[in-house]
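Hi R.,

Here's the chain you asked about this morning:
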Amino acid sequence: MLKEFKNFIMTGNVIDLAVAVILAGAVKAVVTGFVSNIMMPIIGIFTGGVSFADMKYVLSEAVAEVKDGDVIVTAAKPENAIMYGQWIDSIISLIIVGFVLFMIVKAYNKTKKKEEEKPAAPPAPSKEEVLLGEIRDLLKNK
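And here is the predicted structure, written out as tokens:
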């Protein structure tokens, strides 16, 4: 069973999948940086300077520590908010990645069509055709 597992893990498909997952993690960082640092400021110009990353719906405000002399009356409580602006950033990232993948697949399919359009080499003549050709050549020489 261990040997079968080792054979399964060492097949090309599993290794290709592992490489793809690792590369996807690296590409995610690049795309996130591109969207957040390059695309969103440009989109912000068209939306009147709005930064999507800062958009949120506050469910409950943050509470700072309230002291009465040296005694803490209320403990600090963080803000509770729905960060829908970051979700918009994620959607824009998805659209950009989807478009780039579409262009890559389209270019790949174009190269495959060129390979398919090449005419196939004519099939080799059968034994009978070769024999008939030899007979023809012998008759011509007489």
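One quick note: The radius of gyration is 33 Å.

Cheers,
M.
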